[in-house]
Design a protein that fits this description.
Helix content is about 45%, strand content about 25%. The protein is of the alpha+beta class. The chain has 3 domains: about 200 residues, no CATH class; about 150 residues, Aminopeptidase, CATH 3.40.630.190; about 160 residues, no CATH class. The longest helix has about 50 residues. It is globular, with a radius of gyration of 28 Å.
Length: about 600
Protein backbone atom coordinates (compact mmCIF):
# COMPACT_ATOMS: atom_id res chain seq x y z
CA UNK A 1 0.00 0.00 0.00
CA UNK A 2 1.01 3.59 -0.55
CA UNK A 3 0.89 6.19 2.17
CA UNK A 4 0.26 8.95 -0.42
CA UNK A 5 3.74 10.34 -0.27
CA UNK A 6 5.97 10.68 -3.38
CA UNK A 7 9.04 8.50 -3.49
CA UNK A 8 12.15 10.22 -2.22
CA UNK A 9 13.71 10.18 -5.71
CA UNK A 10 10.66 11.93 -7.23
CA UNK A 11 10.62 14.54 -4.49
CA UNK A 12 14.32 15.17 -5.11
CA UNK A 13 13.77 15.65 -8.88
CA UNK A 14 10.84 17.96 -8.25
CA UNK A 15 12.90 19.99 -5.78
CA UNK A 16 15.82 20.30 -8.23
CA UNK A 17 13.54 21.34 -11.08
CA UNK A 18 11.91 23.92 -8.84
CA UNK A 19 15.24 25.34 -7.78
CA UNK A 20 16.47 25.48 -11.38
CA UNK A 21 13.30 27.22 -12.54
CA UNK A 22 13.52 29.67 -9.65
CA UNK A 23 17.15 30.43 -10.47
CA UNK A 24 16.28 30.82 -14.15
CA UNK A 25 13.48 33.26 -13.38
CA UNK A 26 15.78 35.20 -11.08
CA UNK A 27 18.53 35.20 -13.70
CA UNK A 28 16.14 36.43 -16.40
CA UNK A 29 14.93 39.15 -14.08
CA UNK A 30 18.54 39.98 -13.20
CA UNK A 31 19.71 40.35 -16.80
CA UNK A 32 16.50 42.14 -17.78
CA UNK A 33 16.94 44.82 -15.13
CA UNK A 34 20.66 45.14 -15.81
CA UNK A 35 20.06 45.07 -19.57
CA UNK A 36 17.58 47.93 -19.37
CA UNK A 37 20.09 49.92 -17.34
CA UNK A 38 22.92 49.12 -19.75
CA UNK A 39 20.91 50.08 -22.82
CA UNK A 40 19.89 53.33 -21.11
CA UNK A 41 23.56 54.07 -20.36
CA UNK A 42 24.61 53.29 -23.93
CA UNK A 43 21.87 55.52 -25.32
CA UNK A 44 23.20 58.36 -23.14
CA UNK A 45 26.72 57.63 -24.42
CA UNK A 46 25.45 57.91 -27.99
CA UNK A 47 23.61 61.19 -27.32
CA UNK A 48 26.59 62.71 -25.52
CA UNK A 49 28.94 61.56 -28.28
CA UNK A 50 26.95 63.55 -30.85
CA UNK A 51 27.11 66.63 -28.62
CA UNK A 52 30.84 66.04 -28.08
CA UNK A 53 31.50 65.98 -31.81
CA UNK A 54 29.73 69.33 -32.18
CA UNK A 55 31.64 70.82 -29.22
CA UNK A 56 34.99 69.77 -30.65
CA UNK A 57 34.00 71.14 -34.04
CA UNK A 58 33.25 74.49 -32.38
CA UNK A 59 36.53 74.40 -30.45
CA UNK A 60 34.69 74.43 -27.09
CA UNK A 61 37.09 72.30 -25.03
CA UNK A 62 35.45 73.10 -21.68
CA UNK A 63 32.14 71.70 -22.86
CA UNK A 64 33.94 68.80 -24.53
CA UNK A 65 35.66 67.93 -21.24
CA UNK A 66 32.31 67.92 -19.41
CA UNK A 67 30.74 65.70 -22.07
CA UNK A 68 33.71 63.32 -22.07
CA UNK A 69 33.34 62.85 -18.31
CA UNK A 70 29.65 62.10 -18.79
CA UNK A 71 30.42 59.60 -21.56
CA UNK A 72 33.06 57.87 -19.44
CA UNK A 73 30.63 57.55 -16.50
CA UNK A 74 27.81 55.98 -18.53
CA UNK A 75 30.17 53.75 -20.51
CA UNK A 76 31.69 52.40 -17.29
CA UNK A 77 28.22 51.81 -15.87
CA UNK A 78 27.09 49.92 -18.98
CA UNK A 79 30.25 47.80 -18.85
CA UNK A 80 29.71 46.95 -15.15
CA UNK A 81 26.08 45.99 -15.81
CA UNK A 82 26.98 43.57 -18.61
CA UNK A 83 30.13 41.91 -17.31
CA UNK A 84 28.92 39.77 -14.40
CA UNK A 85 28.88 35.92 -14.56
CA UNK A 86 25.08 35.70 -15.03
CA UNK A 87 25.19 37.98 -18.06
CA UNK A 88 28.08 36.03 -19.58
CA UNK A 89 26.24 32.76 -18.95
CA UNK A 90 23.35 33.99 -21.09
CA UNK A 91 25.93 34.69 -23.80
CA UNK A 92 26.19 30.96 -24.54
CA UNK A 93 22.43 30.38 -24.86
CA UNK A 94 21.53 29.37 -28.44
CA UNK A 95 19.97 32.12 -30.58
CA UNK A 96 19.77 34.64 -27.70
CA UNK A 97 23.45 34.34 -26.76
CA UNK A 98 24.95 36.48 -29.55
CA UNK A 99 22.68 39.37 -28.52
CA UNK A 100 23.92 39.28 -24.92
CA UNK A 101 27.52 38.97 -26.08
CA UNK A 102 27.10 41.88 -28.49
CA UNK A 103 25.69 44.20 -25.82
CA UNK A 104 28.50 43.20 -23.47
CA UNK A 105 31.13 43.80 -26.15
CA UNK A 106 29.66 47.17 -27.13
CA UNK A 107 29.64 48.28 -23.51
CA UNK A 108 33.23 47.11 -22.97
CA UNK A 109 34.40 48.90 -26.10
CA UNK A 110 32.61 52.11 -25.09
CA UNK A 111 34.24 51.94 -21.65
CA UNK A 112 37.68 51.26 -23.15
CA UNK A 113 37.42 54.08 -25.68
CA UNK A 114 36.02 56.60 -23.19
CA UNK A 115 38.53 56.00 -20.40
CA UNK A 116 41.70 55.17 -22.33
CA UNK A 117 41.31 57.23 -25.52
CA UNK A 118 38.73 60.00 -25.28
CA UNK A 119 39.96 61.64 -22.08
CA UNK A 120 43.69 61.51 -23.05
CA UNK A 121 42.93 62.92 -26.51
CA UNK A 122 41.01 65.86 -25.05
CA UNK A 123 43.78 66.47 -22.52
CA UNK A 124 46.26 66.50 -25.41
CA UNK A 125 44.05 68.85 -27.39
CA UNK A 126 44.37 71.35 -24.58
CA UNK A 127 48.08 71.58 -25.42
CA UNK A 128 47.19 73.01 -28.83
CA UNK A 129 45.28 76.15 -29.66
CA UNK A 130 42.44 74.75 -31.76
CA UNK A 131 41.89 78.19 -33.22
CA UNK A 132 45.30 78.22 -34.86
CA UNK A 133 46.85 74.75 -34.48
CA UNK A 134 50.15 76.58 -34.24
CA UNK A 135 49.76 78.09 -37.73
CA UNK A 136 50.66 81.76 -38.02
CA UNK A 137 51.77 83.62 -41.13
CA UNK A 138 52.37 80.40 -43.02
CA UNK A 139 54.64 79.03 -40.25
CA UNK A 140 53.68 76.08 -38.06
CA UNK A 141 54.87 76.13 -34.44
CA UNK A 142 56.27 72.61 -34.08
CA UNK A 143 57.00 72.61 -30.33
CA UNK A 144 53.49 71.61 -29.09
CA UNK A 145 53.43 68.49 -31.27
CA UNK A 146 56.19 66.84 -29.23
CA UNK A 147 54.14 67.35 -26.05
CA UNK A 148 50.98 65.72 -27.39
CA UNK A 149 52.66 62.73 -29.06
CA UNK A 150 52.78 60.33 -26.03
CA UNK A 151 49.07 60.57 -25.04
CA UNK A 152 48.06 60.37 -28.69
CA UNK A 153 50.18 57.24 -29.07
CA UNK A 154 48.33 55.58 -26.18
CA UNK A 155 44.94 56.71 -27.47
CA UNK A 156 45.73 55.48 -30.98
CA UNK A 157 46.72 52.04 -29.64
CA UNK A 158 43.51 51.89 -27.57
CA UNK A 159 41.33 52.77 -30.54
CA UNK A 160 43.10 50.27 -32.79
CA UNK A 161 42.41 47.56 -30.22
CA UNK A 162 38.79 48.69 -29.85
CA UNK A 163 38.34 48.71 -33.62
CA UNK A 164 39.69 45.16 -33.84
CA UNK A 165 37.28 44.03 -31.11
CA UNK A 166 34.37 45.85 -32.76
CA UNK A 167 35.07 44.16 -36.07
CA UNK A 168 34.91 40.75 -34.36
CA UNK A 169 31.31 41.24 -33.21
CA UNK A 170 29.03 39.11 -35.39
CA UNK A 171 26.33 41.70 -36.05
CA UNK A 172 24.54 39.37 -38.49
CA UNK A 173 23.81 36.95 -35.63
CA UNK A 174 21.96 39.58 -33.57
CA UNK A 175 18.47 41.03 -33.73
CA UNK A 176 18.06 43.78 -36.40
CA UNK A 177 17.93 46.81 -34.04
CA UNK A 178 21.02 45.60 -32.20
CA UNK A 179 22.78 44.77 -35.47
CA UNK A 180 22.23 48.34 -36.66
CA UNK A 181 23.60 49.69 -33.38
CA UNK A 182 26.68 47.45 -33.64
CA UNK A 183 27.38 48.62 -37.19
CA UNK A 184 26.91 52.26 -36.18
CA UNK A 185 29.30 51.80 -33.23
CA UNK A 186 31.80 49.98 -35.45
CA UNK A 187 31.73 52.82 -37.97
CA UNK A 188 32.24 55.41 -35.22
CA UNK A 189 35.17 53.53 -33.70
CA UNK A 190 36.79 53.04 -37.09
CA UNK A 191 36.42 56.73 -37.88
CA UNK A 192 37.86 57.71 -34.49
CA UNK A 193 40.72 55.26 -34.91
CA UNK A 194 41.54 56.71 -38.31
CA UNK A 195 41.44 60.33 -37.12
CA UNK A 196 43.40 59.77 -33.90
CA UNK A 197 45.87 57.55 -35.73
CA UNK A 198 46.42 60.34 -38.23
CA UNK A 199 46.81 62.88 -35.42
CA UNK A 200 49.34 60.66 -33.70
CA UNK A 201 51.23 60.20 -36.93
CA UNK A 202 51.20 63.95 -37.47
CA UNK A 203 52.45 64.67 -33.95
CA UNK A 204 55.26 62.13 -34.37
CA UNK A 205 56.24 63.10 -37.91
CA UNK A 206 55.48 66.79 -38.41
CA UNK A 207 58.40 68.29 -36.47
CA UNK A 208 61.07 66.43 -38.42
CA UNK A 209 59.21 66.40 -41.74
CA UNK A 210 58.60 70.15 -41.59
CA UNK A 211 62.23 70.94 -41.06
CA UNK A 212 62.71 71.20 -37.31
CA UNK A 213 66.02 69.35 -37.65
CA UNK A 214 67.03 70.75 -41.02
CA UNK A 215 65.52 71.74 -44.38
CA UNK A 216 63.41 69.25 -46.34
CA UNK A 217 62.29 69.01 -49.99
CA UNK A 218 59.11 67.20 -51.06
CA UNK A 219 57.87 66.37 -54.53
CA UNK A 220 54.10 66.78 -54.86
CA UNK A 221 52.50 64.71 -57.63
CA UNK A 222 49.02 65.89 -58.63
CA UNK A 223 46.88 63.09 -60.05
CA UNK A 224 44.09 63.56 -62.58
CA UNK A 225 41.21 61.14 -61.93
CA UNK A 226 39.81 61.71 -65.43
CA UNK A 227 42.54 59.31 -66.58
CA UNK A 228 42.62 56.64 -63.89
CA UNK A 229 45.65 54.98 -62.38
CA UNK A 230 45.83 52.53 -59.47
CA UNK A 231 46.39 55.22 -56.83
CA UNK A 232 43.97 57.77 -58.29
CA UNK A 233 44.98 59.16 -61.65
CA UNK A 234 47.66 60.03 -64.15
CA UNK A 235 50.29 62.47 -62.91
CA UNK A 236 49.21 65.71 -64.57
CA UNK A 237 51.42 68.19 -62.76
CA UNK A 238 54.32 68.03 -60.35
CA UNK A 239 55.91 70.52 -57.95
CA UNK A 240 58.54 70.89 -55.24
CA UNK A 241 57.79 72.05 -51.69
CA UNK A 242 60.49 73.28 -49.31
CA UNK A 243 60.03 72.99 -45.54
CA UNK A 244 62.30 74.58 -42.96
CA UNK A 245 61.61 75.40 -39.32
CA UNK A 246 57.87 74.91 -39.85
CA UNK A 247 57.66 77.23 -42.85
CA UNK A 248 56.39 75.65 -46.06
CA UNK A 249 56.91 77.19 -49.49
CA UNK A 250 56.22 76.22 -53.08
CA UNK A 251 59.57 76.62 -54.82
CA UNK A 252 59.20 74.98 -58.23
CA UNK A 253 56.50 73.70 -60.59
CA UNK A 254 56.88 71.45 -63.62
CA UNK A 255 54.72 69.68 -66.17
CA UNK A 256 54.91 66.19 -67.57
CA UNK A 257 56.52 67.59 -70.73
CA UNK A 258 59.59 68.30 -68.59
CA UNK A 259 60.01 64.54 -68.15
CA UNK A 260 60.49 62.83 -71.54
CA UNK A 261 60.21 59.01 -71.61
CA UNK A 262 63.32 57.14 -70.53
CA UNK A 263 64.93 54.77 -73.00
CA UNK A 264 65.98 52.53 -70.11
CA UNK A 265 63.22 51.88 -67.58
CA UNK A 266 63.89 52.38 -63.88
CA UNK A 267 63.80 49.15 -61.82
CA UNK A 268 60.33 47.87 -61.02
CA UNK A 269 58.90 44.92 -59.06
CA UNK A 270 57.96 41.74 -60.91
CA UNK A 271 54.27 42.27 -60.15
CA UNK A 272 54.31 45.79 -61.60
CA UNK A 273 55.99 44.58 -64.80
CA UNK A 274 53.54 41.66 -65.03
CA UNK A 275 50.57 44.04 -64.88
CA UNK A 276 51.87 47.11 -66.73
CA UNK A 277 55.07 46.04 -68.50
CA UNK A 278 57.90 48.59 -68.01
CA UNK A 279 55.79 51.70 -68.70
CA UNK A 280 55.76 52.97 -65.08
CA UNK A 281 59.56 52.89 -65.16
CA UNK A 282 59.75 54.90 -68.39
CA UNK A 283 56.83 57.37 -68.31
CA UNK A 284 56.30 59.78 -65.40
CA UNK A 285 52.56 59.78 -66.14
CA UNK A 286 52.35 56.03 -65.54
CA UNK A 287 54.24 55.72 -62.26
CA UNK A 288 50.94 55.78 -60.38
CA UNK A 289 49.94 52.59 -62.20
CA UNK A 290 51.99 50.96 -59.44
CA UNK A 291 49.45 49.76 -56.80
CA UNK A 292 51.80 50.08 -53.82
CA UNK A 293 52.82 53.69 -53.13
CA UNK A 294 55.85 52.52 -51.17
CA UNK A 295 57.18 51.33 -54.55
CA UNK A 296 55.79 54.16 -56.69
CA UNK A 297 57.02 57.10 -54.57
CA UNK A 298 60.77 56.32 -54.78
CA UNK A 299 60.41 56.12 -58.57
CA UNK A 300 58.80 59.59 -58.62
CA UNK A 301 61.59 60.93 -56.42
CA UNK A 302 64.22 59.42 -58.67
CA UNK A 303 62.69 60.99 -61.79
CA UNK A 304 62.71 64.45 -60.13
CA UNK A 305 66.29 64.09 -58.95
CA UNK A 306 67.41 62.93 -62.39
CA UNK A 307 65.70 65.87 -64.07
CA UNK A 308 66.49 68.73 -61.69
CA UNK A 309 69.24 67.42 -59.40
CA UNK A 310 67.44 68.45 -56.20
CA UNK A 311 67.67 65.94 -53.32
CA UNK A 312 64.19 64.69 -52.39
CA UNK A 313 63.19 63.89 -48.80
CA UNK A 314 59.73 62.60 -49.61
CA UNK A 315 56.84 62.39 -52.05
CA UNK A 316 53.23 63.47 -51.57
CA UNK A 317 50.55 62.35 -54.03
CA UNK A 318 47.15 64.06 -54.10
CA UNK A 319 44.27 63.81 -56.53
CA UNK A 320 42.06 66.41 -58.16
CA UNK A 321 38.95 65.47 -56.18
CA UNK A 322 40.53 66.54 -52.88
CA UNK A 323 40.37 70.15 -54.15
CA UNK A 324 36.66 70.02 -53.37
CA UNK A 325 37.50 69.41 -49.72
CA UNK A 326 40.15 72.14 -49.73
CA UNK A 327 37.83 74.74 -51.25
CA UNK A 328 35.34 74.00 -48.49
CA UNK A 329 38.05 75.42 -46.19
CA UNK A 330 39.48 78.20 -48.37
CA UNK A 331 36.40 79.48 -50.17
CA UNK A 332 36.27 80.28 -53.93
CA UNK A 333 39.51 80.73 -55.89
CA UNK A 334 40.28 82.29 -59.26
CA UNK A 335 42.90 80.98 -61.67
CA UNK A 336 43.17 81.64 -65.39
CA UNK A 337 39.70 82.49 -66.72
CA UNK A 338 37.96 80.34 -64.08
CA UNK A 339 36.46 80.87 -60.65
CA UNK A 340 36.31 77.61 -58.71
CA UNK A 341 34.02 76.77 -55.79
CA UNK A 342 33.68 73.54 -53.87
CA UNK A 343 30.62 72.75 -56.00
CA UNK A 344 32.21 73.16 -59.44
CA UNK A 345 35.96 72.64 -58.96
CA UNK A 346 35.96 68.90 -59.79
CA UNK A 347 34.08 69.30 -63.07
CA UNK A 348 36.17 72.37 -63.84
CA UNK A 349 39.53 70.63 -63.37
CA UNK A 350 38.55 67.29 -64.91
CA UNK A 351 36.28 68.35 -67.75
CA UNK A 352 35.60 72.05 -68.33
CA UNK A 353 39.23 73.07 -68.81
CA UNK A 354 39.60 70.57 -71.66
CA UNK A 355 36.43 71.82 -73.34
CA UNK A 356 37.29 75.51 -72.93
CA UNK A 357 41.05 75.37 -73.64
CA UNK A 358 42.05 73.04 -76.49
CA UNK A 359 45.81 73.68 -76.28
CA UNK A 360 47.46 71.18 -73.85
CA UNK A 361 50.31 73.60 -73.13
CA UNK A 362 47.86 76.29 -72.02
CA UNK A 363 45.98 73.67 -70.00
CA UNK A 364 49.21 72.93 -68.14
CA UNK A 365 49.61 76.62 -67.35
CA UNK A 366 46.10 76.81 -65.93
CA UNK A 367 46.65 73.69 -63.84
CA UNK A 368 49.87 75.23 -62.48
CA UNK A 369 47.99 78.42 -61.60
CA UNK A 370 45.31 76.35 -59.86
CA UNK A 371 47.90 74.47 -57.81
CA UNK A 372 49.64 77.69 -56.80
CA UNK A 373 46.35 79.36 -55.83
CA UNK A 374 45.23 76.36 -53.77
CA UNK A 375 48.52 76.07 -51.94
CA UNK A 376 48.65 79.77 -51.13
CA UNK A 377 45.05 79.87 -49.92
CA UNK A 378 45.47 76.74 -47.79
CA UNK A 379 48.34 78.32 -45.84
CA UNK A 380 47.02 81.87 -45.60
CA UNK A 381 43.24 82.15 -45.87
CA UNK A 382 41.87 78.83 -44.59
CA UNK A 383 40.90 78.55 -40.93
CA UNK A 384 43.29 75.94 -39.49
CA UNK A 385 40.47 73.81 -38.09
CA UNK A 386 38.75 73.77 -41.48
CA UNK A 387 42.02 72.98 -43.23
CA UNK A 388 42.71 70.03 -40.91
CA UNK A 389 39.15 68.78 -41.46
CA UNK A 390 39.60 69.01 -45.24
CA UNK A 391 42.89 67.12 -45.10
CA UNK A 392 41.42 64.48 -42.75
CA UNK A 393 38.47 63.92 -45.09
CA UNK A 394 40.78 63.62 -48.09
CA UNK A 395 43.02 61.16 -46.24
CA UNK A 396 40.00 59.09 -45.22
CA UNK A 397 39.05 58.89 -48.91
CA UNK A 398 42.62 57.73 -49.80
CA UNK A 399 43.21 60.92 -51.79
CA UNK A 400 46.50 61.70 -50.02
CA UNK A 401 49.54 59.41 -49.96
CA UNK A 402 52.88 60.23 -48.33
CA UNK A 403 56.30 58.59 -48.53
CA UNK A 404 59.48 59.60 -46.73
CA UNK A 405 63.04 58.90 -47.82
CA UNK A 406 63.97 58.73 -44.12
CA UNK A 407 63.61 55.15 -42.86
CA UNK A 408 62.33 55.95 -39.35
CA UNK A 409 59.59 58.18 -40.75
CA UNK A 410 58.70 55.78 -43.54
CA UNK A 411 58.15 52.93 -41.06
CA UNK A 412 55.37 54.99 -39.43
CA UNK A 413 53.93 56.14 -42.74
CA UNK A 414 53.94 52.71 -44.36
CA UNK A 415 51.97 51.29 -41.43
CA UNK A 416 49.30 53.99 -41.80
CA UNK A 417 46.63 54.56 -44.43
CA UNK A 418 48.59 57.59 -45.63
CA UNK A 419 51.43 55.28 -46.68
CA UNK A 420 49.43 53.79 -49.56
CA UNK A 421 50.79 50.27 -49.10
CA UNK A 422 48.81 47.18 -50.10
CA UNK A 423 46.92 46.41 -46.85
CA UNK A 424 47.62 43.46 -44.57
CA UNK A 425 44.88 41.10 -43.38
CA UNK A 426 44.18 40.67 -39.66
CA UNK A 427 40.69 40.14 -38.26
CA UNK A 428 39.50 41.70 -41.51
CA UNK A 429 40.19 40.25 -44.93
CA UNK A 430 40.93 42.82 -47.62
CA UNK A 431 40.05 42.59 -51.29
CA UNK A 432 40.81 45.28 -53.82
CA UNK A 433 39.79 46.67 -57.21
CA UNK A 434 42.19 48.80 -59.26
CA UNK A 435 41.30 50.76 -62.40
CA UNK A 436 43.92 51.82 -64.95
CA UNK A 437 42.98 53.69 -68.12
CA UNK A 438 44.62 52.65 -71.39
CA UNK A 439 42.47 54.85 -73.63
CA UNK A 440 45.16 57.52 -73.48
CA UNK A 441 42.59 60.25 -72.82
CA UNK A 442 40.37 61.84 -70.17
CA UNK A 443 37.26 59.69 -70.61
CA UNK A 444 37.12 58.42 -67.02
CA UNK A 445 35.20 61.58 -66.14
CA UNK A 446 32.26 59.66 -67.64
CA UNK A 447 32.83 56.27 -66.01
CA UNK A 448 31.27 54.70 -62.92
CA UNK A 449 31.74 51.49 -60.98
CA UNK A 450 29.77 49.32 -58.59
CA UNK A 451 31.46 46.68 -56.47
CA UNK A 452 29.79 43.85 -54.57
CA UNK A 453 31.19 41.16 -52.32
CA UNK A 454 29.63 37.84 -51.40
CA UNK A 455 30.77 35.39 -48.74
CA UNK A 456 29.85 31.71 -48.44
CA UNK A 457 30.78 28.28 -49.74
CA UNK A 458 31.16 27.05 -53.31
CA UNK A 459 31.76 23.35 -53.95
CA UNK A 460 32.03 22.93 -50.18
CA UNK A 461 34.92 25.40 -49.80
CA UNK A 462 34.87 28.84 -48.11
CA UNK A 463 34.62 31.43 -50.87
CA UNK A 464 34.90 35.19 -51.25
CA UNK A 465 33.42 36.60 -54.44
CA UNK A 466 34.16 40.06 -55.85
CA UNK A 467 31.97 41.43 -58.65
CA UNK A 468 32.81 44.69 -60.46
CA UNK A 469 30.48 46.43 -62.91
CA UNK A 470 32.18 49.09 -65.05
CA UNK A 471 30.07 51.54 -67.08
CA UNK A 472 30.82 54.14 -69.76
CA UNK A 473 28.25 56.92 -69.27
CA UNK A 474 29.61 59.18 -72.01
CA UNK A 475 27.01 60.70 -74.35
CA UNK A 476 26.14 58.64 -77.40
CA UNK A 477 27.72 61.30 -79.66
CA UNK A 478 30.91 61.51 -77.57
CA UNK A 479 33.08 60.86 -80.63
CA UNK A 480 32.06 64.21 -82.13
CA UNK A 481 30.70 66.15 -79.13
CA UNK A 482 33.84 65.88 -76.99
CA UNK A 483 37.29 67.32 -77.80
CA UNK A 484 39.87 64.94 -79.22
CA UNK A 485 42.05 65.55 -76.16
CA UNK A 486 39.24 64.05 -74.03
CA UNK A 487 38.39 61.10 -76.29
CA UNK A 488 41.94 60.40 -77.39
CA UNK A 489 40.93 60.83 -81.02
CA UNK A 490 41.91 57.23 -81.75
CA UNK A 491 45.60 57.93 -81.15
CA UNK A 492 46.14 54.75 -79.12
CA UNK A 493 43.91 52.48 -81.18
CA UNK A 494 40.70 53.17 -79.26
CA UNK A 495 37.69 54.55 -81.14
CA UNK A 496 36.73 58.06 -79.95
CA UNK A 497 34.10 57.81 -77.22
CA UNK A 498 35.13 54.28 -76.25
CA UNK A 499 36.88 53.63 -72.93
CA UNK A 500 39.58 51.00 -72.55
CA UNK A 501 40.43 50.01 -68.99
CA UNK A 502 42.57 47.47 -67.17
CA UNK A 503 40.56 46.22 -64.18
CA UNK A 504 42.54 44.39 -61.51
CA UNK A 505 40.93 42.43 -58.67
CA UNK A 506 43.00 41.10 -55.79
CA UNK A 507 41.88 38.72 -53.07
CA UNK A 508 42.67 38.00 -49.42
CA UNK A 509 46.25 37.16 -48.50
CA UNK A 510 47.05 33.57 -49.48
CA UNK A 511 43.81 33.00 -51.41
CA UNK A 512 43.76 31.83 -55.02
CA UNK A 513 41.16 32.48 -57.74
CA UNK A 514 38.80 29.56 -58.35
CA UNK A 515 36.55 31.26 -60.93
CA UNK A 516 36.96 34.26 -63.26
CA UNK A 517 34.31 35.57 -65.62
CA UNK A 518 33.45 38.66 -67.67
CA UNK A 519 30.07 39.61 -69.08
CA UNK A 520 29.65 42.45 -71.57
CA UNK A 521 32.09 44.77 -73.26
CA UNK A 522 35.00 43.76 -75.44
CA UNK A 523 38.71 43.16 -74.87
CA UNK A 524 41.13 40.31 -74.50
CA UNK A 525 39.34 37.14 -73.45
CA UNK A 526 42.22 35.96 -71.27
CA UNK A 527 43.03 37.21 -67.78
CA UNK A 528 46.46 38.03 -66.38
CA UNK A 529 47.30 36.64 -62.96
CA UNK A 530 50.17 37.77 -60.74
CA UNK A 531 51.09 38.20 -57.09
CA UNK A 532 50.89 41.51 -55.24
CA UNK A 533 52.93 40.49 -52.23
CA UNK A 534 50.98 37.53 -50.86
CA UNK A 535 47.79 38.41 -52.76
CA UNK A 536 46.78 36.99 -56.11
CA UNK A 537 45.64 39.65 -58.57
CA UNK A 538 43.53 38.96 -61.65
CA UNK A 539 43.56 41.61 -64.40
CA UNK A 540 41.32 41.91 -67.46
CA UNK A 541 41.08 44.49 -70.23
CA UNK A 542 37.64 45.95 -70.97
CA UNK A 543 36.51 48.16 -73.90
CA UNK A 544 33.19 49.95 -73.57
CA UNK A 545 31.40 52.13 -76.11
CA UNK A 546 29.16 54.92 -74.75
CA UNK A 547 26.30 53.44 -72.73
CA UNK A 548 27.89 50.00 -72.37
CA UNK A 549 28.71 48.10 -69.18
CA UNK A 550 30.77 45.04 -68.34
CA UNK A 551 30.84 42.90 -65.21
CA UNK A 552 33.88 41.02 -63.96
CA UNK A 553 33.45 38.29 -61.35
CA UNK A 554 36.31 36.69 -59.44
CA UNK A 555 35.90 34.01 -56.77
CA UNK A 556 38.69 33.29 -54.30
CA UNK A 557 39.18 30.22 -52.14
CA UNK A 558 41.81 29.40 -49.53
CA UNK A 559 43.28 31.54 -46.76
CA UNK A 560 41.16 34.47 -45.60
CA UNK A 561 38.10 33.60 -47.70
CA UNK A 562 34.57 33.23 -46.38
CA UNK A 563 35.27 35.97 -43.82
CA UNK A 564 32.23 38.12 -43.07
CA UNK A 565 34.60 40.91 -42.12
CA UNK A 566 35.80 41.69 -45.63
CA UNK A 567 36.84 45.22 -46.61
CA UNK A 568 37.00 46.51 -50.18
CA UNK A 569 39.89 48.81 -51.13
CA UNK A 570 39.74 50.53 -54.50
CA UNK A 571 41.22 53.18 -56.73
CA UNK A 572 40.03 56.65 -55.62
CA UNK A 573 37.66 57.86 -58.35
CA UNK A 574 35.72 61.00 -59.17
CA UNK A 575 32.54 59.36 -57.88
CA UNK A 576 33.08 56.80 -55.15
CA UNK A 577 31.89 53.36 -56.29
CA UNK A 578 28.72 51.94 -54.77
CA UNK A 579 30.03 49.10 -52.58
CA UNK A 580 27.66 46.56 -51.02
CA UNK A 581 27.43 42.92 -49.89
CA UNK A 582 25.16 40.50 -51.70
CA UNK A 583 24.08 36.87 -51.47
CA UNK A 584 26.63 34.46 -52.91
CA UNK A 585 25.71 32.92 -56.25
CA UNK A 586 28.53 30.56 -57.12
CA UNK A 587 29.82 30.88 -60.64
CA UNK A 588 32.15 27.90 -60.37
Amino acid sequence: MSDGRMPVQHRWVRWVVGVVLTLLVLAIGWVTVRGIGAVNDLQRVSASASQLKAAIGEGDLDRAATLSGRIAHHAESAHDLTSDPVWHAFGVVPWLGPNFSAVSDVAAIADQVASDALVPVLDAAGELDLASLGLSGGIIDLAPFAAIEPPLADASATLASAEDRALRIDADATLPPLADAVREMRSAVTQASTVVGALHGASALLPSMLGAEGPRNYVVAMQNNAELRSSGGIIGAIALLHAEGGRISLVQQASTTDFPPLEQALPLSESTVALFEDRPGRFLQNITNIPDFTEAAPVIAQRWQQRFGTPVDGVIAVDAVMTKNLLAATGPLTFGPFTATEDNVVSLLLSDIYTTIPDPAVQDQVFAQAASALFGAALTSAAPKDLVAALATSADEDRIRIWSAHEDEERLLAASELGGAIPEDDATSHVGVLFNDTTGAKMDYYTDATITTAIGRCDGAPTTQVRVTWTNNAPADAATALPAYVTGGGTYGVDPGTVRTLITVYGPEGATPSFVDREGGQGDEGAQTTLLGSRTAVQQEVLLAPGESATITVEYQGDGTGNRLTTVDHTPMIRTPDISPEELRCGS
